[in-house]
Each structure stands twice: as C-alpha cells, then as structure tokens.
Amino acid sequence: MKTRLLKCLFFIVLVRPLVILLIGLNVYHRERLPKDGPHVVIANHNSHLDTMVLMSLMPLRLLWRTRPVAAADYFLANRWLSWFSRNVLDIIPVQRRGRAGQAHPLQGCFDALDAGNILILFPEGSRGRPEQMQPLKRGISHLLRDYPQVGVTPVLLRGLGRALPKGEALLVPVNCDVAVGEMLYLESDEDAFMTAIEACFRQLAPLCTAGVWRDQTPE
Amino acid sequence: MLEIPPHVQWVVGCVVVLLAVASVISIAMVKLQPQRDHTELRQRIRSWWWMIALLFMALLFNRTVAIVFFAVLSYLALKEFFSIVPTRLMDRRVLFWAYLAIPVQYLWVGMGWLAMISIFIPVYVFLFLPVRMLLIGETRGFIRSAGVIHWMVMLAVYCLSHLGALLMLPVTNAQAGYVGPVLFVLLMTQLNDVAQYIWGKSLGRHKIVPKVSPGKTWEGMVGGCITIVIVSALLGPWLTGLSAAMSALAGGLMAVCGFFGDVVISSVKRDLQIKDTGRLIPGHGGLLDRLDSLIYTAPIFFHFYHYLGGGVA
C-alpha cells in the first residue's frame, strides 16, 4: 500500500509535469494502450526516460499495477537506487546472468502476471546507442510461453535518446514520439512471434518524425 | 481586482462572442450532418477556447505574467523546432545553451532594455553558439548545424520576444493600456490568416508559390490584405496610439509579413516532409503551425510602431 501511494505521488507530482514540460510527447494511437492487466508493454530502449514516459502514459487506475522489468545488477546496485527502484518504481528485478540452482530468472515476472500486473519490458536488453534499434532478445517469448492469453503491446519511442542518451546526465528538452502498436499474442510459434514484433516496430517507424533527416532528391 | 482598460474589455468581449458563435455553428453542423466526421472542427474550436483563455489570463493579469507567458511560448516553439529539424546528436549541449538564451532574452524584455533586446541574439548568441560547438571538436556538419541552430533561435526566441517588448513600450493610448498594441498584432495576424483563407477559397485562381503552399493564391493574398487594411484602420486607433492612416499601413505590413511567416514555416515542413510541426494543440497540430505568421509580424510591427508610429520611448 505504501509503495502504491509513493509511486502514484511520484508520478503525479514529479514525473508527469516534467514529461509534459521538459519533454513533450506526440502520442500516436493512444487508444491502443492496455485497458487492463495482466499485460506486457514492450518498447525500444534508448534512455532512462523510456520507463518514465511509458509509465506516465498509464491511467492512474493502472499505474500502481504497472511495473518495469529491470536488471537487478544495475537497479539494485546501491542502497539509494535499490530503495528507489523497489519503493517508487516498484520494479521486477531480473538477474541478467542466471546461476544454477536458483529459481527461474523470470519467476518475478510470472508472479506479477499472475497478480494481474502490467509489465514494461525492453526486449533489446539494454539502452543501446542513441536512437538506434538493436536486435531483440528472446526473453519475451520465454516469458509468455505459459501465458498465451496475455497480450503484448509494442510501443516505439523516438527522440528520448536525444533528450537523455546513455551515459549523459544533462537532459536537453526535445519533443518525443510515442507510437503505440496493435496488440499481439504468442501463439505456438515463437519465431513467428518475434518476427511479428519486429514487423510491428517497423510499421510504427513512419509515424515518428522526430529529427529524422530524409535526404531529398532534387526534382 | 484586475483593472482592464475599457477598449480591451470590448475586444475580449468581441472575441468571446465570435468564438461562441463558432461553437454554436459547429454544434449545429454536427446536428445537421451526423453522418460526417466533425472531430477536427470540434477539436479546433475547443483548442481555440483554451488558447484564448490562457492568452487573456496571461495578458490581463500584469506585465510580468504576460512576459513569462511569452517566454514559455518561445520555449515550446524552440523545442518544437529542435524536435523536427534534425541536428547532430553531438550538438545536445549546444541546444542546451540555445535554450538558455530564452530566460536571458526575456530578462532584457522585462527590463525594457530595447537595445539589448535587439542585439543579444543576433550578435552575442550568434557568436557564442559556434564557439560552444567547436569545443565538441567534430567538424563534419559544423556549418549546417551552426546555421540551423541559430536560425531556429532567431525565429522562436528573438522574433517572438518582440511581443513581450511591445508590452514594455510607453502607453500612448490610456483606453487600451499596455495590452493594446500586443492585442492589435495578435488579432490582425490571426484575422489575416482567416481572411486570406476565406478569400483564397472563394476566389483563388493564381497560385503564388505552388510548390511550397498550393493553397496560397494572389486573390487570397490581396483580399486578405484589403480586409486587414480596413479592419486595422478602424481598430488601430482604438488599441494603439497610431492614427487611422498609420494603422492601415501597419495592417498592410502585417498582412504581407503574416503571409511570408506562414509560407516560411510551410517551407520548413515541406523540406522535412511533415504535415504538422507537432501535436501540442488538438485539431491544429503543433505550436509553430499556430505561431508561424506571428514570427514575422511581431518584430516588424514592433519596429513600425516604435520607430515610425510615434510610440516614442
């Protein structure tokens, strides 16, 4: 309960105003965002702002159930970050390198789906080079193997890697594009599922216009 | 209680009545043609209510609030520019410094230091930005970035800050107060957009710049110009210290400049192959889509009014 309150306060008082004023979002197909859990939202990952932006898009009644899946070795690295990650963001920690004899590395995610939560997951794994998409990892299909009824919504983010790229501490305001894709389900074929996700990201790309230089051929 | 000058009260009343009429018409259209999609029209009008409410609240409260309001507008406009016009990723810190030009420029505005308002961005920011860029040490794309970044600061910050500068001029018409001249520019610029659109739609034959903005015709331009000259001649003496003849001249200037501002931003959008500059204002697109004409009319009217119109400092 305390965590929920902290989380909602943090987002209402701090994150939402900052996202509106310092970043500014052009949201495409907002109506496709999940209406209820359990659900998984996946997005490309260029910036620490990604999680904040995705969570600030969630309506309040879903916000307290929306939890980012994050690497334990990074987000639980020290006391302060750990407290913040657990109590304010309410992350689902995942061990990047599973050790033998431990519980399933995705156990936390399974529990969260069982509890009807909305997971935020970055299938690229980590924040890559600014504004470039890396190949998707297959964790998402491992996760959904036993949850064929849980929908996946891909979201393409463009511009946040300019506002706050990896390794930078200075935020520079630029409007960012958020394009929400159609919901997908994992049917039997995992390869087809991964292909469908990649295709969805590709289809969303033309909606995003933030700072892309298209060279023009003179007529 | 706020002391709103009588002429300004009239103008505010007229604008609210006009908007109310537009709202009634849109509701009637929805009732009469339920099969057609009126979402955009309704969004546009709702956004107009919001814009007008925010603008009047900011302008009528006091000078400081009005100046902060224009500073925020400049910030949002610059942010929109930086978002659509591609810059090098390594120029992030240069963009950051470019943003810092906003509080400084509006500080000069608040001080009423006209000389500094006029030279700070064209001289000092212009010289400073390339220096900050060369510290990054990458020379590829240097020229384009230097030009593009400064041009955007000029349009979004320098030009728009003249709206704030108008507030600081000595009041020459007590019936309209410090708000009068600003209201005059805003009203004439917006009315010019509407008038050129209506004249162009009804009589438009000969395109001016077919490749950039196919909707712009000589008929629309001339019709709009005549309309604005007439309305300005009537309204100018009411809201500013200008005579009717000078007001008409100012109106003609604003009609021509407003057209150019509109087409310049259209050219930017054409070059980037985008339809709108953003999605900030539902039904309208981005803020720059709304401010395009003002970027040109604000500084031109300021100079006309201050140096030729007898608004003596």
From TrEMBL, chain A:
Domain of life: Bacteria
Pfam families according to UniProt: Acyltransferase
Record's keyword terms, sorted: Acyltransferase, Membrane, Transferase, Transmembrane, Transmembrane helix
One example of a Gene Ontology biological process annotation: phosphatidic acid biosynthetic process
Domain Phospholipid/glycerol acyltransferase: 39-160
Pathway info: Lipid metabolism
GO MF term list: 1-acylglycerol-3-phosphate O-acyltransferase activity
Regions that span the bilayer: 9-28
SUPFAM superfamilies: Glycerol-3-phosphate (1)-acyltransferase
Coiled-coil segments on the chain, per record: none
Protein name in UniProt: 1-acyl-sn-glycerol-3-phosphate acyltransferase
Organism name: Zymobacter palmae
TrEMBL record, chain B:
EC category name: transferase
Predominant subcellular localization, coarse grouping: membrane
Bilayer-crossing regions: 6-28, 48-76, 96-127, 148-172, 178-199, 220-239, 245-265
Pfam families: CTP_transf_1
EC number of the protein: 2.7.7.41
One of the GO BP terms on file: peptidoglycan-based cell wall biogenesis
Pathway: Phospholipid metabolism; CDP-diacylglycerol biosynthesis; CDP-diacylglycerol from sn-glycerol 3-phosphate: step 3/3
UniProt subcellular location: Membrane
Catalytic activity: a 1,2-diacyl-sn-glycero-3-phosphate + CTP + H(+) = a CDP-1,2-diacyl-sn-glycerol + diphosphate
Cellular-component GO terms for this entry: plasma membrane
InterPro entries assigned: PC_trans
Membrane topology summary: Multi-pass membrane protein
Superkingdom assignment: Bacteria
Swiss-Prot/TrEMBL keywords: Membrane, Nucleotidyltransferase, Transferase, Transmembrane, Transmembrane helix
Molecular function as annotated in GO: phosphatidate cytidylyltransferase activity
UniProt cross-references to PANTHER family, sorted A to Z: PHOSPHATIDATE CYTIDYLYLTRANSFERASE
Protein name: Phosphatidate cytidylyltransferase
Organism: Zymobacter palmae
